[in-house]
């Protein structure tokens, strides 16, 4: 794949869309009203629209290394607030994936330079769940479980924000924690008990 091929593919894509719906692009240009905010990993193998089977306009998307919701990251916080308060999405999805390079790097005792402060967020997840993770003898299974727990903790980070708390109260916004199994193509709902988590953290993190 080279740059010239990208532009050829773009022309083919335009022709395909117009052959199905001559108004496709004029309809897109009218605005967006996505149902989902999708927060996923930047991994080139994991694309929101493909794995969810949705079309442009149906999900507002933010991606970063290891799908983190870091409260001091202006990028993710800006996306979150815009999606919730202006676009009024009904569902926020944090989607991790097995074989995540960011999570694997965080498990290694190595100095990774500029990545250190970013990966520390994942190491903090490990610290919070150290007893459970250290009890898993198989390294791959421990790695997979950390991927899942990282998704859970990023969902908790969402629940700590005023915008999400307000939207849950006023219009029933839901938070979803998923993992994409890159080996099978399946999306897995982690079925996290967010009602219990919200109840447990309300005393400290209630903002709305």
UniProtKB/TrEMBL annotation:
InterPro entries assigned to the protein according to its UniProt record, in alphabetical order: Carbonic_anhydrase, Carbonic_anhydrase_CS, Carbonic_anhydrase_sf
A Gene Ontology molecular function term of the record: carbonate dehydratase activity
Catalytic activity: hydrogencarbonate + H(+) = CO2 + H2O
Positions with a binding annotation for Zn(2+): 41, 43, 97, 100
Cofactor (UniProt): Zn(2+)
UniProtKB keywords: Lyase, Metal-binding, Zinc
GO biological process, one term: cellular response to carbon dioxide
Entry GO CC: cytoplasm
Any one Pfam family match given in the protein's UniProt record, by short name: Pro_CA
Enzyme type, top EC level: lyase
UniProt family annotation: Belongs to the beta-class carbonic anhydrase family.
Protein name per Swiss-Prot or TrEMBL: Carbonic anhydrase 2
The species this protein was found in: Pedobacter soli
């Amino acid at each position: 794949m080279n740059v010239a091929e990208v532009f050829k593919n773009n022309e083919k894509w335009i022709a395909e869309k117009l052959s199905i719906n001559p108004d496709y692009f004029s309809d897109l240009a009218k605005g967006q009203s996505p149902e989902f905010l999708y927060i996923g990993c930047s991994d080139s193998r994991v694309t929101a629209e493909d794995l969810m089977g949705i079309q442009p306009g149906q999900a507002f998307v933010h991606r970063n290394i290891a799908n983190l919701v870091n409260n001091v990251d202006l990028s993710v916080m800006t996306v979150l607030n815009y999606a919730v308060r202006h676009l009024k999405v009904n569902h926020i999805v944090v989607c991790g994936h097995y074989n995540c390079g960011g999570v694997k790097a965080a498990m290694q005792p190595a100095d990774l330079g500029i990545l250190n402060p970013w990966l520390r967020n994942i190491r903090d997840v490990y610290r919070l769940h150290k007893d459970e993770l250290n009890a898993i003898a198989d390294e791959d299974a421990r790695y997979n479980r950390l991927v899942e727990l990282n998704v859970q903790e990023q969902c908790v980070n969402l629940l700590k924000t005023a915008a999400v708390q307000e939207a849950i109260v006023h219009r029933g916004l839901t938070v979803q924690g998923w993992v994409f199994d890159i080996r099978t193509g399946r999306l897995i709902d982690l079925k996290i008990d967010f009602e219990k988590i919200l109840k447990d953290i309300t005393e400290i993190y209630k903002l709305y």
